[in-house]
Design a protein that fits this description.
The protein is of the alpha/beta class. Helices cover about 40% and strands about 15% of the residues. The protein starts with a helix and ends in an 8-residue tail after the last helix. The protein binds pyridoxal-5'-phosphate.
């Protein structure tokens, strides 16, 4: 078999459908302005929501950790790769999330895959929101549990579907903030529904950690849910500007994961430098709440401005602002026209979103200036006119 020809044909099909992806290389740090191919762009595609990617205090923390621990962990956590800084960060994360314990994973993806596959087996039923992140979907598949997908953010559909599975072990899992639509899960109702049926609740707060809630603790913090959420997953890679993922929950859960989460057991420990950066970032989240306040204020302003310009943008409060275009090729053309004006906003297409719902995904940082936002809204509106894209009736 000529494998290159086989894959080449598949790529050609993607190309013909306007679905082929390529990589974009930055040669500057992740900030509101980045350098791509020698040109400066305004970046509206970063998960570094608080703009901490170049913060001198975080860079210093990495430098100090490198001097102390060297450049790599050298082993898995259960062999020779556990360092005192791992324990310190896990204690801080547990405190931050209001839980008894926390466990680090190398990425958020690995945290989701590890916890779900360790927790559930073929005797379990997992109820999963239709828009959950791919890493949750993959964790569910690995677990071999029966997976029941409920309509996006629909507690009514969840309740209806749960009624058919009394008396079995059940897990309800949802994104806290949905990564594509930027909406927030109806957690208080969801938790009440799950608890009434005796289910365990897990929330993926990748996009909410450091962003939402009075303490920046995420959606559980926002809704004051305390320990009603049994499993809180978060990333260090988005607002916290570092890398890695974690699970926070009861001490027994953490102990169990140390023993059974395969993506924890069989992988080299997360780099101590990343831990040091995360500790410094958590400190900033605690000490500088104005960063997330400014971020949310700017997000609110930009959503309203785009809506005032008649563009198809949903109301909401997170820094993820989707602008619905519909057709994949038009979304790509929109993104390319913005790039010609030195504004970088990615187009999301199938399979990331459902066919016919391709969109631009605008994502803000606290460090975008108001002028950046105003300028970008104007350019978006101009291009939308050229492409005949307008909002729903308002
Ligand atoms: C980004 C993301 C992840 C994965 O986190 P990484 O640290 O990037 O691996 C998991 N869930 C959601 C909802 C995410 O947006």
């Amino acid at each position: 078999m000529d494998v290159d020809r086989y894959w080449g044909d598949r790529l050609a099909t993607l190309q013909a459908q306007g679905l082929r992806r390529t990589l974009t290389y930055l040669s500057s740090p992740q900030g509101p302005r980045v350098t791509i191919g020698g040109r400066e762009f305004l970046l509206f595609a970063s998960n570094s929501y608080l703009g901490l990617g170049t913060d001198p205090r975080l860079k210093e923390a990495a430098r100090v950790a490198m001097e102390r621990y060297g450049v790599g962990a050298g082993g898995s956590r259960l062999t020779t790769g556990s360092y005192d800084i791992h324990r310190r960060l896990e204690e801080e994360l547990a405190h931050f999330k209001g839980c008894e314990g926390a466990l680090l994973f190398n990425t958020g993806y690995m945290a989701n895959v590890g916890v779900i596959s360790a927790l559930a087996d073929q005797d379990w039923v997992i109820f999963s929101d239709a828009y959950n992140h791919a890493s949750i979907v993959d964790g569910c598949r690995l677990s071999r549990a029966r997976v029941v997908v409920y309509d996006h953010a629909s507690v009514a559909d969840l309740e209806r579907k749960m009624a058919s599975y009394r008396g079995v072990s059940t897990l309800v899992v949802t994104d806290g903030v949905f990564s594509v639509d930027g909406d927030i899960a109806p957690l208080p109702l969801l938790v009440a529904c799950a608890k009434a049926a005796g289910a365990i609740v897990m929330v993926d707060d990748a996009h909410a950690t450091g962003v939402l809630g009075p303490h920046g603790g995420g959606t559980s913090d926002l809704f004051q849910l305390g320990r009603q959420v049994d499993i809180q997953m978060g990333t260090l890679s988005k607002a916290l500007a570092s890398e890695g993922g974690f699970i926070a929950g009861s001490a027994v859960l953490i102990d169990y994961l140390i023993n059974r989460a395969r993506s924890f057991v069989y992988s080299t420990a997360i780099n101590p430098m990343s831990c040091a950066v995360s500790l410094a970032a958590l400190e900033l989240v605690r000490r500088e709440p104005e960063r997330r306040e400014l971020l949310l204020e700017k997000a609110k302003w930009m959503r309203e401005r785009l809506r005032d310009l008649g563009l198809p943008v949903a109301a909401g409060q997170t820094p993820i602002i989707p602008l619905l275009v519909g057709d994949a090729e038009v979304a790509v053309a929109f993104s390319q026209k913005l790039q010609e004006r030195c504004i970088f906003v990615p187009a999301l297409r199938p399979p990331t979103v459902a066919p016919g719902t391709s969109r631009l995904r605008i994502s803000l940082m606290a460090t975008h200036t108001w002028e950046d936002l105003e300028y970008t809204c104007r350019v978006i509106s101009e291009i939308a006119d050229q492409l005949s894209i307008r909002g729903h009736e308002q």
